[in-house]
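Feature request, filed as a ticket because there's no other form

It would be nice if the structure record came with a short human-readable summary line next to the tokens. Right now we just get the raw output. Example of a typical job, pasted below so the devs can see what we mean:
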Amino acid sequence: MIPNENPSEIETIRHSCAHLMAQAVQELFPGTQVTIGPVIEDGFFYDFSRKEAFVPEDLEKIEKRMKELAAADTPIVRSEISREEAIKKFSDMGETFKVEIIEGIDPNEPISLYTQGEWGDLCGGPHVESTKKIKAFKLLHTSSAYWRGDERNPVLQRIYGTAWNTEKELRVYLKRLEEAKKRDHRKLGKELDLFSVSDDIGPGLILWHPKGARIRHLMEEFWKKEHFKHGYEMVISPHAAKIDLWKTSGHTEFYKDNMFSNMDIEGREYVMKPMNCPFHIQIYKTKLRSYRDLPVRFGELGTVYRYERSGVLHGLLRVRGFTQDDAHLFCRPSQIEEEITKVLDLIVFILQSFGFHEYKIYLSTRPEKSVGTDEGWESATKALETALNNKKLDFEVDPGEGVFYGPKIDIKIKDSLNRYWQVSTVQVDFNLPEKFDISYIEEDGQRHQPIMLHRALMGSLERFFGCLIEHYAGAFPLWLAPVQVILLPITDNHAEYADKIAQQLEESGIRVEKDLRNEKIGFKIREAQLQKIPYMIVLGDKEVESSTLGVRRRRSKETRTLDLKTFLDEVNEAVENRTIDSDV
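Raw output as currently delivered:
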């Protein structure tokens, strides 16, 4: 196995820590087989073949043994052996999974082992020089995993861990993990009554509750308004179509396992749509287009359905039915760069409006298997690169990671916990225009094939909403909050004044609730804070007599006395400017 090229120091530590964990496991639980143990973002995992599942107490024992092994300062030594020697060695050890791995390695590729004392494993490395270099680590949790990710294969036990250069870095990371648990969108979704999933309906299908649906409506309303401003036309397509459409597009060839199909309607097979693009092409084809009509920009908040195994479903982030903020642009080759630039402008504006200002951007180039001409790929890739440079957006080139039908730009957003989420994408497509034989009349009077651009800004409303929940820990900015103001009358004597204020706020477009329960005001305030409502208005004798409001922000202990007009001016300004105010 060829050693990893230029790994970072922390990756080397984590790789070595994974081996340390595997050694501890095999010492404590004889008969356990090791399979693979890669480095992942912020840590590592190792998959083990063992009948019994690991329990939290096992992780404590394993971690304790790892610390003992690390303190022993055992040298970690690399060696190379032949393919035959490797197969015999691991066969004699009863490591059937390792034998399978070796048999799949190129016979001309060297096979390396890393050993620490009497324990060793097949590995490409590199590793630290000694176990003593592995100082700051923690085992996190366990899960099940299929061998090689195939559900037809044996079930393995996976242990996740993390390792850092120093104990201080480890403590900071563990604190961030605790904060992430508090922000888990599934937990907050239940506490704030935003959404749910029901076994009676089926896994991966989201029920949007009134408050969650209100936020979704605000997201959609904002999205549509901006798209109309940027020259898009909204279209709506059906949720299902004859399978012939997907045969033409090629989805049945490459995507059949992820499609919900086998709906027999009058003897014809229909499928739930996994993508919106073929529908938008059909709309494009309903009339003859001229070069004067291009670019054509179709946008749709289109709900699609894709089969995902139940084991990988995860709240709003991995579902079976989701709504893409989709758009397809049809343009002349000479218009690609300008259209990509406009798309990037819109992406940045939309993301910043929701409070995301830091990104990782990737330009993915032509893969080995692709369609289209060399000239077309070169021209399209150059257009994407030029647009990124013109916007002064830093990006990394991801060689060979484009889709088979064209190069693409992917954008990951950084949230308040420094995590990155894949959301926006822009893709050039040489394939579908040819598959569906779409064209336009050029200046020369001849039919030409347009370039098709796929793009999504938020990716999907479900995933983006999950990201928003965790980014803000459920404390949405004022313009997005499902309830912006809650009125808290101190006693029943102040309820009539609360009704009057509620009516005036509602007439001004403010989303307002009243807490008329017979509870103490301190209790009402705490409840409103738990619901993360931006403004609490306390109404007592003083406020009734002076026709004022006792205004308190959700993260403040100060109560300000304001008249209604001043309060409305403050709220409307924050909403209009989409202020991301951490104090509100």
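Something like this underneath would help us a lot:
Residues 1-6 have pLDDT under 50 and may be disordered.
Residues 9-28 form the longest helix (20 residues).
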